[in-house]
Structure formats: C-alpha cells, structure tokens
Amino acid sequence: MNRQSLIIDCDPGVDDAVALMLAFGAGEFELLAVTAVGGNVPVEKTARNARMLRQIAGRGDVPVFAGADRPLRREPAGAGEFHGAEGLGDLTPFEPDAPCTEGHAVDAIVERVMARPEGSVAMAVMGPLTNLALALRREPALAARLGPVAVMGGARSEGGNITASAEFNIWADPDAAAEVLASGCDVVLFGLDATHQVRATEGRIATLEGLGTAKADTAASMMRFSQRIEREIVGWDAPPVHDPCPVAWLLRPGLFELASCRIQVETESELTRGHTAVEFREEMGGGLPHRWATSADADGVFALIAEKCA
Ligand code: BDR
Ligand code: CA
Q1: CATH number of the domain that 12 lies in?
Q2: 184: domain range?
Q3: What are the backbone angles phi and psi of residue 140, rounded to the nearest 5°?
Q4: Cβ-contact 264, 284 below 8 angstroms
Q5: Nearest ligand 1 atom to alpha carbon 240
Q6: What pLDDT is recorded for position 2?
Q7: Residues whose CB is under 5 A from ligand 2 (ion)?
Q8: Residue 80 pLDDT
Q9: Per-residue model confidence (pLDDT) at position 90
Q10: 275 part of the active site
C-alpha cells in the first residue's frame, strides 16, 4: 500500500482524542509526528494528553513533540469547560511511559516536510494554527513543499461556537490562521458548517462502546463526556465531533463536499475576531486558493471511526 505521510497538529481535547484514535488505527497513514499546541488546555497538558493517547492506542512508534505555548500575539485562551480541566473529559490523567521527543514542534514540522518530496506530506491541524504559522515563518518554502493542509476551523453559515461569529481554533489565534491562509498552502477548512453535521448520537456512541477495544472505549468516553457537557451548556443531545473531520477526509475524500473559495480571517475587530470570510465568487478577484467543506456524510465518518478503532 502507498501510505500517506501525515503530521497531526493538535490540542487534545476530547474531539482531538477521537481524531487521534482514528488516525492511530489507520494503516493508510505513515504518521511522521504528532505535534501539540496550547489551545483547549495549556501545551504541557496537550502534549501529555497526546502521549497518553499514543500509549492507549499502542502507537509508541509515533513521535510526539511539544510546540507553541501561546498564540502569536494574544493571551492564551482555553476551552476547559468543553474538555475538562485536564483536557480529556473523564479520562484520569496519568504520566505516560514515554516522554516527548526532544526538540520543538515547529522544527519537527519544518525538518520532516522539507526532507520529503514536494507535495508528499499532508497535515491535519485541529487546534489553533500557531505551530504551522511559526513553521511557515521559519521556512517560507514549506508552503509549496506541503501536500494538503486539512484544518478543523472556521465559522460561516452556522455562526460561531466561542463567539457569535467565530469558531474556537481560528478565534484563539486569528493571526496564525490569517498567516497560514495567506501563505500559499493548499488549505482545506472543515468549519462548523460541516462539523455540526457530524454528531455523536446515542446509537453512534453505543456502536463504539460495543467494540470493546481500547481505542473505541477511549473515543466513546470522549463522546459521552461531550454529550453531558453540551447538554448542560448548549442544550444539545448529540454533540458535534469536530476534529476527526480533516483526518476522515484524508482517508475518504468522498465523505465531504468541498467548494473552492478564498478565505480571510478577521484579526482586528474584538467583536468579530476570528470570523472566517469565505468568498466563493471568482469574479471578485484574488483567485480561489482554498477549499471549504460545505457538508459531511456523518454516517460515513462514524463508520470510519468504528472501522479504525475496532
Ligand atoms: C474546535 O475547538 C476545540 O475546542 C475543539 O477541540 C475543536 O478543535 C471546535 O471549535
Ligand atoms: Ca482541537
């Protein structure tokens, strides 16, 4: 099998954890690194959580690197209310057997991508885009060297989740998102328009619980936590499971509909900070260098998660 080389940049996070279980179980990927960024919880915790999840999944072969502890020019914000104080819901934290690999996540991204043929390394980014923005500052040639950069982030028709107009990952570091989008990278954005269609219904969680593997149990426990929290905070019975979407697209592109577009991020207004302005009209100029996910096949995404966690 010709495997897709992949770097996963994340801030686990309950839905990041589901995405990692999906990726760890997918033999289609050559996982070059998991890089952690401060986001849902501080980077010390997201890096530890990534190592915990790697151990649970039995993937000690995948290096984990710690990255940026703060956004480019904002104060760090968290989303502990949606992920729990430690980031992984009800999962009790433990000190994993293996440490992070020495070195900074930004260097790991640059070195791994630049050492490979052009277009051959994809990235799945599911936290604030700080690590990738810093990597592009360090090595601008990275943009042309990278394959697809599949990002969970952005708000348009659905409105926002952290503010009325912004989605958390873009809002947390809007400057990084703006730099990545302007860099020339082949960015595919999975915003709330698509991820709000991918919901952990009772039946979908129960299917995972029935599999009886460590990966499936972990993914299901993340969804149970979200189910409880989203009921309390937002009043939803079936919580959206955002972060597996970019990973699922890399495995099965047919599960999503995408539209070519040009995406810009609001970086100045406090009211609409982090809003993604998505232009689909070519005649407006500037080209359509990005892609925006307009819909998702939720049954297909959950079937894929179950397949790879089995
Ligand atoms: C995104 O924000 C984070 O809280 C989640 O992990 C996900 O990446 C959803 O808006
Ligand atoms: Ca995340």
Answers
A1: 3.90.245.10
A2: 4-309
A3: -60, -25
A4: no
A5: 9
A6: 87
A7: 11, 13, 16, 126-127, 243
A8: 83
A9: 94
A10: no
For residue 242 and ligand 1, the question of a CB distance below 6 A is answered with: yes
**Ligand 1 closest atom vs CA 195:** 9
* Ligand 1 binding pocket includes 230 (Cβ within 6 Å): no
Q: Residues 99-136: pLDDT tens digits?
A: 999 999 999 999 999 999 999 999 999 999 999 999 99
Q: What pLDDT does residue 31 have?
A: 98
Out of 83, 242, 275, 290, pick the active-site residue. 242
Q: What is the pLDDT of residues 141-165, one digit of tens each?
A: 999 999 999 999 999 999 999 999 9
* Strand pairing class (290-296; 256-265): antiparallel
Q: Among 179, 177, 219, 227, which residue's Cα sits nearest to residue 201?
A: 227
Residue listed under structure tokens 């995948």: 62
- Total structural domains within the chain: 1
Is the C-beta atom of 15 inside 6 A of ligand 1? yes
pLDDT less than 50: residues of the chain: none
What pLDDT is stored for residue 221 in this prediction? 98
Q: Is 139 buried (19+), middle (13-18) or exposed (0-12) by CB count in 10 A? A: middle
